[in-house]
Amino acid sequence: MGRHLRVELLTMGPGTETYSRFGHSALRITDLRGVGDIVFNFGTFDQDDPKVISKFLAGDLSYWLSVSTYSETRAEYRSEGRLMVGQQLRLSPLQRRRLFLRLYSMARPGRREYRYHHFRANCSTRIRDLLDGVLGGELRRQLAARPAGTYRTWLRRATRSAPAFHLAFDLVLARADRRISAWEACFIPEQLMRALASVRLRGASRGEPLVVRTRILLPGPGFDHEPPAEPWTWVVLLSGLLLALAVIPVGLRPASPWPWRACGALVALWGLGSSVLSALLIYIWSISTLRVFGGNQNLLLLPPTQALWIPVGILLALRPPPRWRPPGWLLGLLAAQGCLAVAYGAAHGLGLVHQGNAPVVLASLPWSVVGVWILHRARCVPTSD
Question: Taking the C-alpha atoms of 79, 221, 69 and 31 in order, what is their torsion angle to the nearest 10 degrees?
Fold first, then answer.
């Protein structure tokens, strides 16, 4: 049976939908006698489930193995204008037969579902593990010895054309900075495609490449498409601009009410945005069973006490100094918060902490320092005669 089978890894380029930004992987098995041309797809889930995002964050999202014809798969991706690359794999007849029977068994109702994990159990890693099994562990032996950056490295690369995703992953992912191997990096379809192309076989096919040939089955945007700008650059610049607009007028005319009104509005806006992010980080940490969301160090920069800046900003805007002066306890509390943020920023700069959140430090730390200075200035405004 295996002599008549051809196995191809299908790699699809990134799409426009949220879930398709990373691309996609599937296995195509063709019976050369014309009996069938089937695509096995581990990336199927209920797109209409209103709780899909909360289930993903909680680590409770179910995916399953679906089966379709190659013509159906090709038509779907052609309508979306997405790239499709086929890599024919050099497997023995016995290996091809084992792979097909394993996929056929896994596609049965009651066995096809699995618990999704973005790094360890997705459309690419399930294929990687299956191929490694039929190859007797050869994939893992070769790929596990090659360094390949970190999980965050690959997430940033895969989302560089999707700024919202890029920013969100950097904010909510806490444990994504461990050095990983090329084997682990295969959670990204692009990396699985490149990794298989680098593997050399042993045994009867010793020294020969695993990939027999590579062909473009559908044209479309590839993985090397570059965006116009790095999203964190704009966030840091915007944060600095708002901070300057808040501080400069107060520094120039501390006795006038209008600089304080403008300053208060910006401080309240910062407090609202940062406290929403703080609540989101705490919520995700509390509901998720995934370790990648736990112990997020961004909470040292965006603690729950950020919510205090909202009433402070409102009072500065509605009752500018000297009509309202911040009480000493409030200044002390926010000063302690600022000192914690400064200490964390210093530890980050010295390489004592390893979460890849330098842009978050650059965007938020100046507010922690200058905010305390603003409150101190507000307490020092002289009473008008």
Answer: 150
Q: Which residue has the tokens 């995703």?
A: 165
Q: Cα 296 to the chain's mean position, in Å?
A: 14
Distance between CA atoms of residues 270 and 262, nearest Å: 13
**Cα–Cα dist 114/116, whole Å:** 6
Helix (H) and strand (E) counts for the chain? 13, 9
pLDDT at position 19: 73
Q: Which of 84, 92, 37, 124 is nearest to 210 (CA)?
A: 92
CB 5 within 8 A of CB 100: yes
pLDDT, tens digit (0-9, with 9 covering 90-100), for 126-151: 999 999 999 999 999 999 999 999 99
Torsions phi, psi of 231, nearest 5? -60, -35
What residue spans define the domains of the chain? Answer: 2-146+182-218, 231-380
**Sequence-separated (6 or more) residues with CB below 8 Å from residue 97:** 1, 2, 5
| Distance in angstroms (rounded) separating the CA atoms of residues 283 and 299 | 12
Look at residue 281 and tell me whether its pLDDT is greater than 90.
yes
Burial label, 109 (beta-carbon count in 10 A; 0-12, 13-18, 19+): exposed
- Output the pLDDT for position 47: 81
Q: Vertex 32, ends 27 and 38: CA angle to 5°?
A: 30
pLDDT tens digits, residue range 47-75? 888 888 888 888 899 999 999 999 999 99
CA nearest 138: which of 86, 76, 85, 92? 92
pLDDT band at 203 (very low <50, low <70, confident <90, very high): low
pLDDT digits (tens, 9 = 90+) for 97-121: 999 999 999 999 889 999 999 999 9
Contacts of 294 by beta carbon, 8 Å cutoff, 6+ apart? 174, 175, 285, 288
Q: Are 212 and 88 in contact (CB under 8 A)?
A: yes
- Give, as one character, the DSSP assignment of residue 186: G
The yes/no answer on whether domain 2-146+182-218 falls in CATH 3.40.50 is: no
